[in-house]
Amino acid sequence: MATDTSDSLITTDVSSTETGRGKVPDETVVASSNLDVYYGTDQALEDVSIEIPEHKVTAIIGPSGCGKSTFLRCINRMNDQIPACTVDGELRFHSTDVYDEAVDPVALRRKIGMVFQKPNPFPKSIYDNVAYGLRVQGKAVTDEIVEEALRGAALWDEVSDQLEESGLELSGGQQQRLCIARAIAPDPEVILMDEPASALDPVATSKIEDLIADLADEYTVVIVTHNMQQAARISDKTAVFLTGGRLVEFDDTQKVFENPQHQRVEDYITGKFG
Ligand SMILES: Nc1ncnc2c1ncn2[C@@H]1O[C@H](COP(=O)(O)OP(=O)(O)O)[C@@H](O)[C@H]1O
Ligand SMILES: [Mg+2]
Fold it and tell me: What's the pLDDT at 83?
């Protein structure tokens, strides 16, 4: 009876515990097929099929309202918190059907963390912000884990002597890196970022961009950005969503920006609309 499900997404017994940890190039970590998402009767995503590769940075770009945030929130079931939102089709994290009713969304979000547009540290100490995710999961908090997460978020050198001070005292860019430290502390596989630098000044933005490149060594990063130069600079793969919530093009970033396959994508990238 004593099954250890602490590391499992499924709260009921499953036979397979495959995790696909290998470093095979372009192993898919998250895949949607024919995904449709509605808010009430309004369709926000239509027939989205995509395979997101492990240990790469995948950028999601497209005009406002085309469903970028909606798609991101589908991946770790943040849309569960929006009662009007319904999801059809399939979304897999490795071999797990994310929308299987046996999946525990809290456990899922430990594996698939999220960083938002506006830095949202808690009104707690820097240390407790980083420890938060571990405590929620009932995991042990150690100074080493907190330090490692802060180093991973390129923040340790700036805050190591003020860990007991409030996270709210930090600058905007530091707060966002604190949120990244909070997201990586529970050792997720995937980090979702929804316009993580759009509220920051250029220097803070550039720090976040450098950090994202480093994060991809250990994690799979999926980043929504409305900044096409940013997508071109930091991502390996680019997904272009256009009006109607459709994924129009998904390919290597260089190819999307230099030789897009769809006229509408070219028009968007060259600034003809959006
Ligand atoms: N919580 C919500 N309730 C109802 N409609 C929503 C909600 N969130 C987003 N939408 C609608 O879904 C569509 C896609 O929105 P969103 O995913 O936020 O796009 P993007 O991030 O690309 O700007 C838009 O038409 C938006 O108005
Ligand atoms: Mg959005």
Answer: 95
From atom 25 of ligand 1, which residue's Cα is the shortest distance away? 65
- Three-state DSSP class for 7? coil
Bridge partner residues of 84 (DSSP): none
Q: How far apart, in Å, are the Cα atoms of 256 and each of 140, 202, 232, 270?
A: 43, 25, 9, 11
The list of the chain residues with pLDDT below 50 reads 1-7, 10-24
Q: Which residues pair with 58 in a beta bridge?
A: 222, 237
Ligand 1 atom closest to the Cα of residue 82 is 1
Q: Which of 37, 61, 69 to mutate to test the pocket of ligand 1 (most atoms within 8 A of CB)?
A: 69
- Distance from Cα 116 to the centre of ligand 1, integer Å: 15
CB-CB neighbours of 203 under 10 Å? 9
Range 28-119+188-269 classified under CATH 3.40.50.300: yes
Atom of ligand 1 at shortest range from CA of 245: 14
Instruction: List, chain by chain if needed, residues with CB within 6 Å of any ligand 1 atom.
Output: 39, 44, 62, 64-70, 82, 84
Share of the chain above pLDDT 90, in %: 85
Mean residue pLDDT of the chain comes to 90
Provide the pLDDT for residue 19.
Answer: 36
What are the b/e assignments for 143-152, b being 16+ CB within 10 Å? eebbbbbbeb
In the reported structure, the alpha carbon of residue 134 is separated from the centroid of ligand 1 by a whole-number distance in angstroms of 30
The pLDDT tens digits for 94-105 are: 999 999 999 999
